[in-house]
Amino acid sequence: MCWWKVQRLLRYYGNARQIAAAASCQTVAVSQSNSSLKKQRNRSFFSAFFCCFRDYNVEPPSTNNNTSSLPPPVEENGTVPKCDQVQVIPIPSPPAKYLLPEMHISDYGKKCVVIDLDETLVHSSFKPISNADFIVPVEIDGTVHQVYVLKRPHVDEFLQKMGELFECVLFTASLAKYADPVADLLDQWGVFRARLFRESCVFHRGNYVKDLSRLGRELSNVIIVDNSPASYIFHPENAVPVQSWFDDMTDTELLDLLPFFEGLSREEDVYSVLQNLRGRGRCGAALWRTAAPSLPFSPPLLTAP
Fold first, then answer.
1. Which end of the chain is more exposed for a tag (fewer CB within 10 A), N or C?
2. Per-residue pLDDT tens for 15-24?
3. CA-CA distance, 232 to 222, in Å (whole number)?
4. Where are the domains of the chain?
5. What is the structure's pLDDT at 285?
6. What angle do CA 149, 154, 157 make, to 5 degrees?
7. Which of the following is catalytic: 55, 116, 180, 269?
């Protein structure tokens, strides 16, 4: 074979190898590109539906060290987020947690009794009452109305004795513009350590409920005295129900309850006593009379001499 033919063959096969190698590299590059594009499309698809597929492994851009800069925000689980797209929403300061102030030093060791006002201690009416104990002016929509207030029989003795035995709190669903001046006239001895009105109630299914868990007192040491079961629907196990009072001047409900409260004030846990009285279908002093033999204590006025 001639020398020039040999050179032509070598030149031909060399170019062929280069072309083959280039084609192979191009094929690999295209394959890798398609694979990367496919992964990227898959990731974009899932990210559109589930936020958990976001790339949180990307480190945030570096910043200059500055001692005055704030530390990165902390997520709810306590870890520092790595994604620079995390938005920190400020949480407003919570309101005051409890309705009552700290217990007065003179009340340490006492249980807390929450006492209702209307139909429990007094009865009020816009109609004139000849024998009203108080007449309280109340402004409603720019007009002053006279409210006639009757005190329940034995309410004075009841309040004075309850003030000796318990930390007493007035809690009413009435408006403060009416209830506050009535309490001023009713409580001449400063029995009520605090007064709570309608704005302190929880409006639940059409009723103003007195949520005892918001008081700031141990629930096992809280008692509510109320004529309306709807008022203590959240905590019926803490209730001492009483009969509603309107105008019966021979009523002795409050007086008859005092021996029971004297005994209850000495108990460590009100639940153990009130649980025995629940579900008997009666309320007020009549309930305590029938329950007296089963009580862990013996109220002096509820037992035979």
1. C
2. 555 545 555 5
3. 12
4. 112-294
5. 58
6. 115
7. 116
pLDDT digits (tens, 9 = 90+) for 243-288: 999 999 999 999 999 999 999 999 988 998 898 777 555 455 565 5
Identify the active-site residue in 118, 187, 226, 256.
118
125 — alpha (psi -120 to 50), left (phi > 0) or beta?
Answer: beta
Reported as a single tens digit per residue, the pLDDT across 148-163 is 999 999 999 999 999 9
Angle between helices 253-264 and 284-291 (to 10 degrees): 50
Q: How many Cα atoms sit within 13 Å of 182 on the Cβ side?
A: 29
Active site residue 116: yes
Kindly report the pTM of this predicted structure: 0.64
CA–CA gap between residue 61 and residue 83 (Å, rounded):
10
Half-sphere exposure of 223 (CA within 13 A, CB side): 26
The position carrying tokens 């398609």 is 34
Q: How many helices (DSSP H) and strands (DSSP E) are in the chain? A: 6, 10
In this structure, the number of other CB atoms found within 10 A of the CB of residue 174 comes to 17
Contact between 284 and 116 (Cβ < 8 Å) = no
The pair of three-digit structure tokens given for residue 160, joined into one six-digit string: 């004075």
Residue type, 36: S
The sign one gets for the Cα dihedral 23, 25, 31, 36 is negative
How many beta carbons lie within 10 A of that of residue 17, not counting itself? 9
CATH level 3 topology of 112-294: Rossmann fold (3.40.50)
Q: Which two tokens stand for residue 14?
A: 């060399």
As a whole number, mean pLDDT of residues 123-140 equals: 96
Average pLDDT of every residue of the chain: 76
Which pair of structure tokens corresponds to residue 164? Answer: 């000796």
CB 245 within 8 A of CB 152: yes
Q: What is the largest CA-CA distance in the chain?
A: 146
Q: Which two tokens stand for residue 163?
A: 């003030």
